[in-house]
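[step 3/7] fold_predict: job queued, chain A
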Amino acid sequence: MTNLLEETKNYLRDNNKTIDDIKWVGNNKFYFDVNEFLNIANVEYDSGYGAPEVAQDLLVVGDNWWLERHEYDGSEWWEYKEIPLKPNKKIELKALTISQAKKLGYDVSVGWENLKSINNIEGDNK
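[step 4/7] structure written:
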């Protein structure tokens, strides 16, 4: 069994955040008081495989970061997200899909490609 509050605190700590860094909790339609969340989140749930128990649209939000729920085959957890910084490098966009890249003659596989390979960008290995 997993305690949702302790799990939340651990994910925050792993990302150099604390409960004090939380600005609001809710989903993309409504929010509720952080203290209400802290009280109700002090609950045990089965985070293992099966059906997810925690509301899948639950968000814990801070300045430029958030925790969101994820699951695979019923196993569930928090994922930490940050607003990405805009890169300095700009490219000319040529393709967004494998089929577009293949039509341009680029050497791509059947899937799991990234923007760099789909757009045939050389260098920087990122």
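[step 5/7] annotate
The mean pLDDT is 94.
Residues 2-82 form one domain.
exit 0
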